[in-house]
Amino acid sequence: MNKGGMDISTIGGIGLGFGAILIGYLLEGGNPAGLVGPSAIIIIAGGTIGALMTSFTIKDVMSIPKLIGQATQLSKGPTSDLVETIITFAEKARREGILSLEGDIDDIGNPLLKKGVKLLVDGTDPEIVRNILENDIYIFELRRKEEAAIFDTAGGYSPTMGIIGTVTGLVLVLSRLGGDAAELGHSIAVAFIATLYGIGLANLFWLPVGGKLKLKMKLEKLEKEMIVVAVLSLMQGENPSVMRDKLDPFLEEGHKEKKGGGGEEK
Fold first, then answer.
1. Is residue 206 within a helix (H) or strand (E), and if so which, with residue range?
2. What span, in angstroms and rounded, lies between the C-alpha atoms of 150 and 206?
3. Residue 136: which of 54, 198, 258, 221 has the closest Cα?
4. Which residues, other chains included, contact 230 with Cβ-Cβ below 8 Å and sequence gap of 6+?
5. What gap in Å lies between CA 233 and CA 93, rounded to an integer?
6. Structure pTM?
7. Is the CA virtual torsion 7, 11, 12, 14 positive or negative?
8. 19-28, 168-177, 220-229, 249-258: which range is least confident on average?
9. Which of 56, 60, 33, 46 lies closest to 198, judged by CA?
10. Who is most buried in 37, 38, 138, 170, counting CB within 10 A?
11. C-alpha triplet 9, 11, 13: angle, nearest 5°
């Protein structure tokens, strides 16, 4: 994974979404204290987490804070640095032979590239190498999809829990009919806070974070697919310039321009 610091779009997006709702509420003359509903929070949080524990394992649910942290980290996908590293390997292999890469294995930071080069040095059959690396990508994608599914599922449960909270609140309101009109109005408003919480969390937190995890998975998968192409090209002893033509399409335009405008990145 290529981490480049904090992903401002994730944090900023969540903050902007909730902030816009709050500002709009205040512009209409609302009181911020009127949006506070402890009972609604208990129903939404407890109900959603309980439903997640039923749908997934406790380990999966306990991983939510870690996954939120991952969603706030940048992931750039394939980079020109990685391409240049691979091209360096290709040039060295053409000059000194494939076995000359053995001394570089321990210095490779990318796990999949490290595995691929090791298989290459060991003289593994190209088809077996392809199967091993593609299997790694398949397992990676499967696990990342399962992680994102936790947030997608929570995004489905959260609004329902909000409705349940509203219904239970309205049941209490109906049981108190005949009382003070102002008190009844306040009780109805409190009841609908649960729906606000449920829908708000689903559409401003759970589903967007799940979407960001899917985006990160696609970028990381693209990097891994590039590595497979690179390793197989190394095995075939392809010319470094040909390899570059194969790998460059995996890069974003910004990376290409940076490499082309200022020489090779090291």
1. none
2. 9
3. 221
4. 86, 113, 116, 243, 246, 247
5. 11
6. 0.86
7. positive
8. 249-258
9. 46
10. 37
11. 60
